[in-house]
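To: structure desk
From: M.T.
Subject: fold request, one chain
Message: Could you run this one when you get a chance? Sequence is below, nothing fancy, just the single chain.
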Amino acid sequence: MKRCYTEAVEKYQPDNHTKMIPEQLGGCKTALEEDIARYQKISKKGNAPRFQKYFRKSQNAKNRLSLYWNRLLFAYYKKANLIDLYYQTKIGPGLYIGHPYCISINKDAVIGSYCNIHKGVTIGQENRGRRKGTPKIGNRVWIGVNATVVGNITIGDDVLTAPNSYVNCDV
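Reply: Done. Structure tokens follow.
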């Protein structure tokens, strides 16, 4: 097993329910390279949104200057796209955001590899009851326009969440 595969699994997939296989990582690509490759396959432009580039760069910054610079640019571009995303959110490689507007993702949520998130999506926290906490989303999950996913729930691999749906139980 390659060292970069082991590091990527530890970095992006802390839970056992969303294990990645080496083919999903595309060799030893970084998460940013994997995101850009996915955009090139799907869209005509082939560019990931700027906030997403700086999100990945701030996660992998080597020194303080690049860390602060990338966080500053990330904050600027996420505000321009009305994205509520924390720079330490655990998101696997291959994330695709088709229309990056009005998306809210809780900082404690875990999102697996190769997920599609569309505009108006809320991935949030529930503060009371037996589902108190944030969601864990598996690999290859498609979350439709204006969908809301809340609570300490698990969405497994290869799941489609319909547009305008409210999910607060395990799928």
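Reply (cont.): The CA atoms of residues 116 and 143 lie 6 Å apart. Let me know if you need anything else for the meeting.
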